[in-house]
Amino acid sequence: MSLIEVKDLQVHFPIRSGFWNRISDWVKAVDGVSFSIDPGETFGLVGESGSGKTTTGRAIVGLEQATGGHILYQGQEISLKHARARHAYNQNVQMIFQDSLSSLNPRKRIETIIAEPLRNFEHLDQDAEKIRVLQLLDIVGLGPDALYKYPYQFSGGQRQRIGIARAVATKPKLIIADEPVSALDLSVQAQVLNFLKKIQRKFGISYLFISHDLGVIQHMCDRLAIMNHGRLVEVGSRDDIYNHPLHIYTKRLLAAIPRVDVRHRQEHQLERLRIEKVYQEQENDYYDQNGLAYPLTPVSKTHLVALSPQMIEKQDLKLQGVD
Ligand SMILES: Nc1ncnc2c1ncn2[C@@H]1O[C@H](COP(=O)(O)OP(=O)(O)OP(=O)(O)O)[C@@H](O)[C@H]1O
């Protein structure tokens, strides 16, 4: 059974205007997104800025109110009405944020920051709580001297580790990692990514890994979804998507990864221009009249892609092993 299943998730934000501040329109930040994550799996969500990745993550963790759709945790619908189920869910689903400086309360010491989720969910006595905080700091490679310091006294990479310690405090089954390394230097990025993998192996955590960086996603994820304008355009295994992308938007994103090898740089540049031209010419074949991706079409049992019926015919896609 999947650990988490997101079905037709919608998060629409009202736009208000005029003297009476009436709703004049809606921003469809997430508009019918479906995917599932298995236990121990890392599922990537990738797309350009504004495509709806963060809003999807925030809706799953309960920081944003979904306006439609369903979220199932271990097969159970998560609803605000069932307080006890919601409490257990909140303990098991945690989030790591991009900006560790603003996500850690600057007025609180690290001890209090890491102890907060323990206080909400475990109600330990003072000594036991302190031991757990020290263990968590040790897991993320920080010593006991960190206990009484404030977030500003740490480097970006160290602060991100503190955010990770806070997220794993309640022994969650799923962590939503929203751009966890994009604010860090390249060398620190690798450290934090490998560290996330290490704690995944240690605790059997699943990740929803949100990033616009396809290199990071390739390094981290087993499967991934490509998001554009609040919808998914392609979902598949890492190898399927990186080696056989089907949607032109995915091809365009992959072609935008800079190449360092001088020998192939020119070929790559030409390929990039070719893809851009196809994208401009065929955009209408990939999106409906509202500019939104068509519903996902299965191409194999694990590879789904948003293509118009005409496009499926044109590309003569062979449906392999699809029931
Ligand atoms: N609270 C809000 N009210 C109104 N619109 C919002 C709100 N939050 C997000 N949006 C809009 O929803 C869309 C998706 O935003 P979101 O932050 O989810 O995208 P993203 O893919 O995570 O982008 P980035 O990579 O830049 O963080 C954007 O157009 C954004 O302006």
Automatic annotation (TrEMBL):
Q: Where is the ABC transporter domain?
A: 4-254
Q: Name one GO biological process term.
A: protein transport
Q: What is the recorded name of this protein?
A: ABC transporter domain-containing protein
Cite the SMART domains for this sequence. Answer: AAA
User: What species is this protein from?
Assistant: Liquorilactobacillus vini DSM 20605
PROSITE patterns hit by this protein: ABC_TRANSPORTER_1, ABC_TRANSPORTER_2
The molecular function GO annotations come to: ATP binding; ATP hydrolysis activity
The record's section on Pfam families has:
ABC_tran (PF00005), oligo_HPY (PF08352)
Q: Which family does it belong to?
A: Belongs to the ABC transporter superfamily.
UniProt-listed CDD domains? ABC_NikE_OppD_transporters
Q: Which keywords are on file for this protein?
A: ATP-binding, Nucleotide-binding, Peptide transport, Protein transport, Transport
